[in-house]
Structure formats: C-alpha cells, structure tokens
Amino acid sequence: MARKIAILGGTGPEGLGLANRLARPGEQIVIGSRDAQRAQDAAKQLREQIGGAAQIEGTDNVSAAGQCEVAILTVPFSGQAALLKQLKGAWKPGTIVIDTTVPLAAALGGAATRMLGVWQGSAAEATKELLPQSVSIAAAFQNLSAELLAGDAPVECDVLVCSDDEKAKQAAMELAGKIPGVRALNGGKLENARIVESMTALLIGLNIRYKVHSAGMRFTGLPVK
C-alpha cells in the first residue's frame, strides 16, 4: 500500500509540481491548502491531467498534516512560521517533514535573486524549531524548477537532501529518485541547507540572464544512480 504524502501549501506552482511528479509513480497524495475547496479543485485537475488511477485528494492543511506519513512543506517563507504554528497539534508521531522553503527576499517584496537573513541559519532549521521532537525533518527540492515539475519529461537535475535524521534523509532521497531524470544526493547535515537554499537565488539569476525558466544543477565526479 502506498504511503500517504501531504503537500502542504500544495496549490502553488512548486506544490502542484511535486504532487504531479509523485502521484505518477503511484504515491498517494493529499494536497493541503488554507482553503479546502481550492485544494480539492487542484486535486481534481491533477487527476484529470495524469489520468489512470492517480491517487490525489485535497483538503485543508491541518487535515492533510494529520493523516500523512510524509509531509512536504511548499509554502512561501513569509507564511512558513504561521503555518507550522497552526499545525503544532496536528502531527502524528514519526511523521517526516520535507522542507522545500527558500527565504527569498521576494517573500517580503524584495528581489527574487536575494536571500533573507534567517537567524537560525536556514529556512529548514527554522522549521525544525517549530516541529515537535517526535517529527523529523529533511530539506530537499529547493532547486527544482516548478515549470519542469509541472510536466512529465525527465528533469535533468540533482537534488541535495540535508538532514540530521537518517530515516528522514532516506525518505526524501527515495521520493526525489521517483522523478525521472533526478539524482538524489546526500547533502549532509541539516545545517547544509543554508548553502542549498542560497543556490536557488543563484539559479533564479541565471534564468533571468539567460532568459530561461529551468536552470538546474548537476554535480560531476559522483556515482550515477
């Protein structure tokens, strides 16, 4: 039986893209949103787009978090803390949270190519402080283009996964590996998310300068999966 994966803040481009990519290989997806009806509409649209027996449903963020084994956090940085505080009592012990958040200045009206200072060091480390001790966290998917995730063609990018919890790291790497073309790499401790998050601002700058929408990263000299 497929595990249940919640995509929190899942009606945005990144959340919908990840829901699309993970539902295709058979994962059971629950799209979460502040507005349950919006999540249900998004789930219906994705089911029609994918076809077959895609398992995608929609509900509010609290209900989605409370029923999942893995939750992927895809809200903008400006809404991260508020959502996590709302979910404080919703988590089941043993849940794995995968944080995709990047603290871009655009979240507060600044440039998308600039990073905000986060005193914890990274958005992922800030998330960890707001999770119960019974919930583990990994940081991943920050550098994947939402535009590429929305389709079904191979995504030729590496995904760095950072975590202090081996189970969470392995779960995130396994999910990343389900996306055609993606290679999941062990990015080390959660504190390394500081570096990975900042790469997103660099990639956005490259997209702007080269007039593309899908700049990604590949690391050379490493084993092919």
Global shape: globular
Gyration radius (Cα, Å) is 16 Å
CATH homologous superfamily (4th level) name: NAD(P)-binding Rossmann-like Domain
Describe the main β-sheet briefly.
Answer: 6 strands, parallel
Mean pLDDT: 95
Estimate percent helicity: 25-40%
Q: Tell me the strand order in the biggest sheet.
A: 3-2-1-4-5-6
- E-strand count: 8
Give the helix tally: 8
What is the CATH topology assignment? Rossmann fold
Describe this structure in words.
Strands 3-2-1-4-5-6 form a six-stranded parallel β-sheet, sandwiched between helices. It has 225 residues and is α/β, with parallel strands linked by helices. It has one domain (4-210): 3-Layer(aba) Sandwich (Rossmann fold). It is globular. The protein contains eight helices and eight strands; from the N terminus they run βαβαβαβαβαβαβαβα. It has helices spanning 13-23, 36-50, 61-66, 77-86, 123-129, 146-149, 166-176, 193-210, and strands spanning 4-8, 28-33, 56-60, 70-73, 96-99, 136-139, 158-161, 183-186. α1 (13-23) links the parallel β1 and β2.
Could you write a compact summary of the structure shown?
The chain has 225 residues and is of the alpha/beta class. The protein has eight helices and eight strands. The chain has a single domain (4-210), classed as NAD(P)-binding Rossmann-like Domain (Rossmann fold, 3-Layer(aba) Sandwich), CATH 3.40.50.720.
Describe the protein's topology.
Elements: E1 4-8, H1 13-23, E2 28-33, H2 36-50, E3 56-60, H3 61-66, E4 70-73, H4 77-86, E5 96-99, H5 123-129, E6 136-139, H6 146-149, E7 158-161, H7 166-176, E8 183-186, H8 193-210
Parallel strand pairs: 1-2, 1-4, 2-3, 4-5, 5-6, 7-8
